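Protein Record: Sequence and Backbone Structure Tokens
======================================================
Scope: a single protein chain, as residues and as a discrete description of its fold.
Tokens: labelled as protein backbone structure tokens, with as many entries as the chain has residues.
Position: the record begins directly beneath this header, with no further notes in between.
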Amino acid sequence: MSFINSSKRMFAIISGKKYRKCPKGSLTHHAEKRALNAGLINSEQVMAYCDNYTTGLSRETITEGLSSYWDITSPQEATETLEFLSQYGHRFIYEIVLKTYSEDASEDDPEQVLAALLESGRYGHPETVLEDMLAAEPSDQTDLIYQHLARAMDMLENLQSIFGALKDKVNGPYLPRDYDAGILAWDLGRLVTVARLSLDCGYIEQSELSRVLAHVDTELNANFSSWPQFAKSYIIGRAAWSGKTMTLGGIIGITEDLMTDKDSPWVLFPL
């Protein structure tokens, strides 16, 4: 999405074009409506419908978004991305980074971050994986670990810049315990968005979207007691992913509206 298009959408939101309703009607199942609301921050950002499986976005916008931001151009890639967001998302690397951050690792100390990645057990037994890496023989596994290391170092730098600095008008300043609570909301919000876009693009069936929404609803019930709590987790995830970018303030503004506007689905349907 170009800067001009992003600016136009942000201006439209600020101008009052919020909570687009699908002309064909809204979802009636309470659990699915609640799960759909987990993706509401992003829905408002791109001006998608807030109340239906379909996003109401143009085919061009959908295919561009999936390919440019998610490298999704096929049903298989859509399924793989949805599985990744469900199982790991950015929260896997965030938890590694938060651990090393609390132990005073600096952005120039990748060895400690690499050790934490291997100790997670995601790639297999740590000693065996390390032996394979030291053998200096190229492999998909080694490439994946170094990709994750690069992402972790970027996220560590972002975390250093935003830790203790985030706040919103409802929750106030974010405390260390808010950062410790993790960024599950960030992954759930994107999971809902990618699933809806993939349905509109014909990459998944409606039954798969329903399965995703059921999973999201289960996670909401198990981990969040209010939308403001969800909002903190989402904003921390967004900031840890991209740092203090130009759009972070706009996203926080959207979230503040969702928490306070009398017409907001979050206000109308609290957790």
